[in-house]
Amino acid sequence: MSIEEIWPTLAPETREWLIAHNGEPIPTDVASAINGADVSVDPTAGRRGATPGIALSDEDVDWIEAVANDEDPARG
């Protein structure tokens, strides 16, 4: 399931966190809040300088960025 499908059910503070930290590894409490989305463990994050952990798909990161920029987040 994509973040687009789950977005309307998320608490405002979860949406705000995802926008403010878009593309960053996701803490377990936020991952729990978005249960059902395409969330996966990103074991390579540490090699890129980030904390290894839970991450959204690239498509979901792009969708959140569009929402944050008041753009049409429709997937093409």
Kindly estimate the percentage of residues that lie in beta strands according to DSSP: 5-15%
Mean pLDDT: 78
Rg on CA atoms, Å: 12 Å
Q: Which shape, going by the Cα principal axes?
A: globular
Low-confidence stretches are: none
User: What is the helix content?
Assistant: 25-40%
Main sheet specs: 2 strands, antiparallel
The secondary-structure class comes to: alpha+beta
Count of structural domains: 1
The count of DSSP E runs of length 2 or more, i.e. the number of strands, is: 2
Q: Count of helical segments? A: 4
End-to-end C-alpha gap: 17 Å
Structural write-up:
There is one protein chain. With about 80 residues, this protein is an alpha+beta fold. It has one domain (about 5-70). Helices cover about 40% and strands about 10% of the residues. It has four helices and two strands. The chain has a two-stranded antiparallel sheet. The chain is globular, with a radius of gyration of 12 Å. About 15% of the residues are buried.
Task: Provide a brief overview of the structure.
This protein is α+β, with helices and mostly antiparallel strands and 76 residues long.
Write out key terms for the chains shown.
alpha+beta; 2 strands; two-stranded antiparallel sheet; 76 residues
Chain-wise SSE layout:
Blueprint (H helix, E strand, L loop, with lengths): L2 H4 L5 H9 L7 H6 L5 E4 L10 E4 L1 H11 L8
Antiparallel strand pairs: 1-2
